[in-house]
Amino acid sequence: MKTSANVAAIVFAASLAFLTGCGSASPAGSSEEDPLKNTDAANLVSNEIVGRGPGGVKSGDLAELELTPDEVAEAKAAKYKVGIVMQTMNVEWSTEQVRGITDRLKELDAEVVGVIDPDYNVEKQIAGIENMIQKKPDAILSIPVDDTATAEAYKKIGAAGIKLILMDNVPKGLSHPTDYQSIVSSDNQGNGAVAAKALAEYIPDGGTVGVLDFGVDFFVTKERKNGFVNWMKENRPDIVVKVAEFLDPAKAGDTASNFLTANPDVKGMFTEWEVPAMAIESALRNQGKNLPITSVNIASDVAIDLANGGMIKGFGAQVPYDQGVAEASAAVNALLGKPVPQWIAFKSVPVIRNNVLDAWKQVYRQDPPAELVKACEDNDACKK
């Protein structure tokens, strides 16, 4: 997305790894002064799905994707072939999606015929979709890089008689159930609300927070922002929210730096995924400032920063592995001729310093990386 033509492409990939938070004026790593030190992370998340899917649809129930023993036998006998078209394979969100999809399909004797990695490039994704159609899979699972520029390519999937399960967003003009059978995502508004609730603990009465917003009309990032802003309006109306927009994730740090210079009253920051969150922290360090940051998505860099008592204070995390399992199950259900929920959302996993190791296991269904474990061993604040 270095050019205007590619902005939307980078947008999408970026939007899949979200949310930064705001830190207090207390020194980084000062756990005894951390207002979230003794917080039960579970209290940061709503009991219900907060947001709606594209078009305002309510989330279906995961139980609707369950298969009976007879249906499992039928699926295994069919030996389904499934193609995967990602936005990038260079982030943990994507690799875990593919791992979840692959594991579930193996259980059903289905085959992954290929994984397309367009590296955020619209033209590469369009070519990848068309190439995947030529392989004649029974279903394609995909996340659009740009929901406008790729729309015609996605329409060709249904026209070719191939089932389409989408991740996070629907390309413009596609209709359900003709062009696609289901969308699977996280509760993006819920993720934004978790980030807001965590950040609010660091903000004094009447304080100001900044939102570094991805300034492209991209559904999931806007949902995260809406979740954050709406929570603040409803629960901390005393807080002033100021917004700065960036278009290129690679230049998010420049936007953050200019915003912080122009708004010295800001006491904390939020952004919609981890990449701009780390850019905010870099901008703050360059200015000799220390503010709390919250965001969406747990990835290695932000998790280690959190564990070490850095400026990153919390996330509303997605569950990409579980989402991948659900996407594979949705595809098989559709291939069996069963009705599939139009939108299926997963609740946010709240992540703060005292639950970061357990949250990692919940999100990725595997042990945390050694560097994160080491950071927690060095910092007792990783425990309540």
Descriptive account of the structure:
This protein is of the alpha/beta class. It has helices at 7-15, 69-78, 92-107, 122-134, 151-159, 188-200, 219-235, 252-262, 274-286, 300-307, 320-335, 356-364, 370-377, and strands at residues 18-22, 81-85, 111-116, 139-142, 163-167, 182-186, 208-214, 240-246, 266-273, 293-296, 312-317, 343-346, 349-351. The chain folds into two domains: 12-41 and 188-320 and 348-382, Rossmann fold; 58-186 and 322-346, Rossmann fold. The chain is built from 13 helices and 13 strands. Strands 1, 7, 8, 9, 10, 11 and 13 form a seven-stranded mixed sheet that branches. The protein has a six-stranded parallel sheet with strand order 3-2-4-5-6-12, sandwiched between helices. Helix 10 (300-307) links the parallel strand 10 (293-296) and strand 11. It is globular, with a radius of gyration of 20 Å.
